Amino acid sequence: MSALSCRSVTVAAAAAEEELRRVFLQYGSSSVFLVEMTDPDRTVRSGPYQRVCLSETQLDFPGLPYSVSVLKPGFCSAHTDGTFRADGTISLVTGPKTVLVDTGGPWDRDFLLQSLEDRGVGPGDIELVVGTHGHSDHVGNLNLFPSALMIVGHDVSEGDTYRPSQLAEGQTFIVDEHVSVLPTPGHTGQDVSVQVTGTSAGTVLIAGDLFESWSDEDTWRDLSMNTTVQEVSRQKALQTADVIIPGHGLPFRVLRN
Amino acid sequence: MSALSCRSVTVAAAAAEEELRRVFLQYGSSSVFLVEMTDPDRTVRSGPYQRVCLSETQLDFPGLPYSVSVLKPGFCSAHTDGTFRADGTISLVTGPKTVLVDTGGPWDRDFLLQSLEDRGVGPGDIELVVGTHGHSDHVGNLNLFPSALMIVGHDVSEGDTYRPSQLAEGQTFIVDEHVSVLPTPGHTGQDVSVQVTGTSAGTVLIAGDLFESWSDEDTWRDLSMNTTVQEVSRQKALQTADVIIPGHGLPFRVLRN
């Protein structure tokens, strides 16, 4: 998280969600998708891009050869005493390789193990763990996967053996034809995101705190180590991803004019 | 670690260690201290400071009210295939508060639990965990301490509740009169070190990768995100600490002219 402050965007999102439920009950599920595309309470425009927040139930993006599931959407809610509650999004990529993207906070250990078990995945089945950046709400459970290839920020390791990588030089780490790890710096100096192509929703970008949430235009800069660099990373993401999974909110769709 | 390359300083250190043992056997222990102070193979000079590497057996710095113990000295050794083996130093501060500084890599889980148990410390006894920075070889086992106050880089949290802190603004986080967490950026943008005053060795600074090792003058810049900022942090450390515990090597004494 690394925040001095964190504004709660969950209040507006909850109101929009309630409105969405009302429309769903009135008009049926087929209308919900259209509402999502146009509902101003769930849509923000930034330059040529619209971001449309998906619902709490749209956490799975099936595909061939790879599917993406959000095991836990991250959140961030400010308290009046100056503290805030926060957790990082945890995502699972399944297909020819099994990839966990972020591990949540240290308090997520049991949740994470149970969530994987619910999907028939044991910790030993995870072949690659990606920590999008080294904040405690994203890398709290690395030790559940000691035998996995591990990418945390720019570091690539297997056990205590670290491999050279060119992530720090801006080069992509290619897992295979469909999955890659992209340097997306700004929130910290060493952020990465995981890109999965070919899902039913198109290209999915699991972005860590490159995006805090679907509607973070007035918050992300406060949490950024380098806003200029992060803005470049964000624009690249918006140019290429169809769905972005942010670090502290629900997935959102990207519409390009 | 976050290194594109890592030179091994352990070969020279081992040779010096062997020479030290020979002198010890010939002249007795009182001479060893003098040899350590002057042996050029264990001493480097940088400006007005000499750094003197301590021996592998000098890992405990008792004191009142606080003692410092290195549970595992970090290391870094390069391989000919371009990979390198590395682990971060793990340190324990005991006294009125029990503080763990860095948790090692994800593969250190069992070692860490056993090492604490050997000292009569259970995971639940740890009141504060400090991750000096968010690299995988330092924050691999955060989830062993879900009930501890946790400082990882600039983030201060208890469970999923994050507290405001001024570490990002350069202010010290004061634990009590003798223990404090200092912002020491450079290796990453959000590094911290733990300072313990009043030990038998004087002021001990547990520095993470602010210093890679006692003799890192030709290596630390390759691993630094901001060498200018890190140089400032290093100079401050050398001005105030009597012993520095680096992130990837044995503790070293600082002598000021």
Commentary on this structure:
Two copies of one chain form a homodimer. An eight-stranded mixed beta sheet of chain A has the order 1-2-18-17-16-15-14-13, sandwiched between helices. In chain A, helix 1 runs antiparallel to helix 2 (29-38). The first copy, chain A, is of the alpha+beta class and 257 residues long. Helices cover 20% and strands 30% of the residues of chain A. Residues 3-17 and 19-37 of chain A have low confidence and may be disordered. The two termini of chain A are 32 Å apart. Chain A has one domain (11-256): 4-Layer Sandwich (Metallo-beta-lactamase, Chain A), CATH 3.60.15.10. In chain A, a hairpin with a 2-residue loop joins strand 1 (43-46) and strand 2. Chain A is globular, with a radius of gyration of 17 Å. Chain A is built from four helices and 18 strands. At the A-B interface, strand 6 and strand 12 of A face strand 6 and strand 12 of B. Strand 6 of chain A pairs antiparallel with strand 12 (161-163) of chain B, so a sheet runs across the interface.
CATH-defined architecture of chain A: 4-Layer Sandwich
Overall morphology of chain A: globular
Strand content of chain A: 25-35%
Whole-Å distance between the termini of chain A? Answer: 32 Å
- Oligomeric state of this protein: homodimer
CA radius of gyration of chain A: 17 Å
Q: Quick one: CATH superfamily of chain A?
A: Ribonuclease Z/Hydroxyacylglutathione hydrolase-like
Query: How would a textbook summarize the main sheet of chain A?
Result: 8 strands, mixed
**Which chains share the greatest interface?**
A-B, 49 and 49 residues
Q: Please mark out the parts of chain A with pLDDT under 50 across 5 or more consecutive residues, or reply none.
A: 3-17, 19-37
- Helix/strand class of chain A: alpha+beta
- What is the typical, i.e. mean, pLDDT of chain A? 89
Strand order of the largest sheet of chain A: 1-2-18-17-16-15-14-13
Number of self-contained structural domains of chain A: 1
What is the helix/strand order of chain A? HHEEEEEEEEHEEEEEEEEHEE
* Structure annotation, total helices of chain A: 4
Question: How many E-type strands of chain A?
Answer: 18
Helix content of chain A: 10-25%
